[in-house]
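Weekly puzzle thread! Below is a chain. First person to post its structure in token form gets bragging rights.
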Amino acid sequence: MNIIFTRTYNLREQEVKFVQGVAGIYFIFLTDVVIEYPFKASQLIYIGMSESKQNSIAMRLRGHLTGQSGNLGISNYAKAHKVRFTYYSADVLRNYGNDNVFDMESFFLSDFLEHHGSFPICNGQAGHQFSGAGAQIAAKVDWSFFQQAWKASRR
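Winning reply:
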């Protein structure tokens, strides 16, 4: 199965509201700047997760916007550039063979590292390692979306 990205939102309060109460994995990217990673360039700057509806994707994104998350890279990029996000809910991600959101985040980070030569610039580290309790993820990520994100943002 392929994981593709289609719908994107501006990283601002009006659109962050759409993911209130949603748990899952989110992806933050720039639309006007390309990051030159060691193996391949990308506009993706962060892969994050929300493990519960109480600490939803919206709550996490708000924390990144305000700097309260402690990740000043994201808030500074948001001040200086057009930043967007996309996401996959935990409910949808279960279809890929693992229902552990921590494992899914690890899967996406590891796959990005393998294809681009480093973690996204605002992640800085791998985070959680696979628990081993759940099934491996049976999917291929289409990272090319984040090489052409600026085109999608102009539609």
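Puzzle host: Confirmed. Bonus trivia for everyone else. Confidence is low (pLDDT under 50) at residues 130-135, 150-155.
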